[in-house]
Structure formats: C-alpha cells, structure tokens
Amino acid sequence: MAIISASVFLSKNSYQLLYKIARTFTGCRIHSLSLGSPSLVVHRQSRSISSNTDAIAKSEGKEAEIPQASEFLKYLRQRIKATGAITVAEYMQECLTNPYYGYYSRKNPFGRQGDFITSPEVCQIFGELVALWCVNEWNISNIGAVPFQIIELGPGTGTLAYDMLRILKSFPQIGNTVSLHLVERSSELARQQAKKLGIEAIDQTWITGAGKGTVEGAVDGPVDGAGDVLHYQTGISQFGIPVYWYQRIQDIPKGAPAFIVANEFFDALPIHKLQMTDGKLREVLVDVTEDDSRLRFVIAPNETAAVRLVPKESRKRQHLELSVEAGVVLNDIADRVTDHGGGALIIDYGHDGTKTDTFRAFQHHKVLDPLHEPGQADVTADVDFSLLRQMLRPKAISYGPITQSTFLFNMAFEQRFNALMKACKSDEEQDRLAAACDVLINPAKMGGQFFVFAVFGWKRGRLGPVTGGFQ
Fold first, then answer.
1. What is the predicted pLDDT for the residue at 336?
2. Are 281 and 304 contacting, i.e. CB atoms less than 8 angstroms apart?
3. Cis (ω within 30 of 0) for the bond into 394?
C-alpha cells in the first residue's frame, strides 16, 4: 500500500505533538483475542445474508428457520397478530432495545465472549488517532480557550473514550476547556464505561428540574435552554475531564463547539427496507406465517410513510435501506457544527449507494438470518453513506467516505505503529501488535470494509483541507 505523508493532512503543531505522544505513551494495549483467527478478525463483515430479502419479499412465503419458539418470539407473534405486520425498523428496535428481551438490554456483546469486536478494542492506535483528528480540527478552527465538547455516540465498552481522553489531556492548549458527553441508552454499559474511565464517584440520579451551570461551559453541569439538566449519569474521569451520559444526542446542551465521534453507531439504528415493486417503491415488512409458527418478510400493499421520506435522488433505486432515526441524529449534528462549530467523524461499515440487501444478524462472530432467534443476536445493516449525504444537504457539508485504512495512514498511523513496536518488550508483544494493526488497516479486513465520513458546517470549507485526507 502506498503511504501518503501525514504532514499533508496534519497541522505542523499537531504533527510534532504526535511524536510527543509516541514518546510519552510508549505502552501498547492489544486486545487479548487471538487476532489471527479468521472468525474474529473482521467485525460484522459486510456481506448480504444468504437468503436475499428481495426474493423473500417477492415470494411472500419463504420462512426463516427458527428451531423453537422463544418467549420473545411469542411476544412478537402476538404483537403482529394484534396490530398487523411491522416494519423492519420496528423489528430491529424490539430486537435490540426491548427492556425485557432486547439484545443490548440483556448482554454485553463486545469481545471474544460477545458477538463482535470493534476497532478501539483491537489496538489503542485507533482511539489515539481519532483524538488527534479532533485536536487538529480544533486547532484549525481556532477555537482557542473557548470550552468545547467531545461527543461520542454509542460508546460501547468506553475504550475509545478512554484513549481519546488520555490523548486530549496531553495537549496543554486544551487544559480544562473540554468535557465528554456520551450517548448511551444501556444503563449497564454506562456503568461499565464509567469504570473504564476511572470514575470513582458516579452520580446516577435522573435530573429533570432546573439545573445550575451554563451551556457554554458545560463543565459545571450542562443544561438545556430551559435550564433543565438532561443527563442521567455524571462523574469526573481519572484524567480530570468531566463526563456526562444521555439517552439521546438531542439532550446534550448546545452552545459550545462540538467534535462528535460515531464509531459503529449508525449501523445499529433501525432501518426501513424499501424495494421497487411493479414500478413503485414499497416497504418490506415483518409478518408471521399463516400457521403462526414463524416470521417472514412480506411487501406492504400500499405506500407507507417511510417511502415518502426517501430523498429525491434515491427514489429510482431498486432497493434501499433508509434509517429515519439516522436522519434525526444527522439533523442534530448538522445544527451543532453549523451554528456552534466543530465537526463529526462517522466510522462504520457501509457503502455509497451501491448495495441492496445488507440486513443481517450476528451471533458469536457469525452471520445469521435476521429473523433467526430474535433478541439472541445483533441485527444490523450497512450504512448507506449516499443517503447520509443526501439527508445532510443543504444544512451541512460532508466529506468521504474514505476507507479506514486510508484515514489511519493519513493520520500518521505508520509513525505511531513504529513507536509502539520499539516499546514492545518481547517478540511476542511485537507479533501481537502487528497482528492487531493488520486487522485495522488491511484492505481485506477492517481497513477496507470500514469507512470514514466527516461532517462540518459550510464555513469549514474555507479553512483548507480536512484532516485525514478527505476530498
């Protein structure tokens, strides 16, 4: 692979500080998994399930193989019988976040014992370079001493947040001006994240009355425009940086520049599956078979609300997967970066409008039919970056997507890797580091299957090239 000089995409100060980081943080953290294992090297590999939904929906009869009825399946059947076929978005919502049966409500999906592994868990370099991206854009924006926010959507285990705070604290220019805001719906994961960030005293009291503090500071206690504090958990990290947890990005106070990171967040948002049928876009729904034993896909007989939300540029496509919730999140991101400054970095597996059926399930690092054992597996779909771009217009400007490999190399991945290799204490450590980094940058693995997409206000276009090699 050709390596592009990082100096093209980093300011001089940030490039010099990268080497300071390389000297200061010589220890390396590599995930304990055997990363050479083919079943673990790629998280939620981008490929369609074997039973294509187009064919299922057209036949309206092909059924998902479910070995035995579960309590959750019984619940879904009863709901569908009572209200009629549900959208794929509703099905995903139930499977992932149902308080009794939902996938994220009942288990920790990360790591070897879980169903997938994400880039931050593979090697610390990923989080370090994402943090450096935020710092460089902060420097380019000339924010100075104004308090600003780092916002992470879907923090997972808290590893990415930890690595980012560790790097941010090493920049004396930032000082005490930064606060971390995490959007996490799972209270259990929020507790794990607090532990990872070294927070000893956690305030988990729901606060909905008038709160103290200012929107601009966001350090003394973030509030909304009505004076209501909307976070549900807060504490001070081991780095001295305050951390707040929210159910939604809309609850995070506005008024300060924000750098938003969404690593494998958008792929978990519910999607509406749409396909061209007899010359018209129609929605794919989830129904039960006539004998009430299994789930199946069917085609909605009439136009649904989701069809009317498809951007004009995509109305002629034969098949697309539209996330209405993604549109809501993007609208909030666009408002923040346009009105208050900052930028957003979206990292996920996906495509630029070239794929059709990507809805699938993952369990124990294996791809399954999405109707198989609902609630027992992670259900997901590739992010359609072309739809994200269309939904952002004309409020904000987007860059990319570029591959994760391209982005990391443009952020001086090679230099940081070499520094860590020198810091390794044994050949075994070096082998593990090399294997972990191969997962991150290899085009046949995460390096080529994950993409990076940036969002800014229109003013950013006048400040020169965007950090990371975006065009």
1. 97
2. no
3. yes
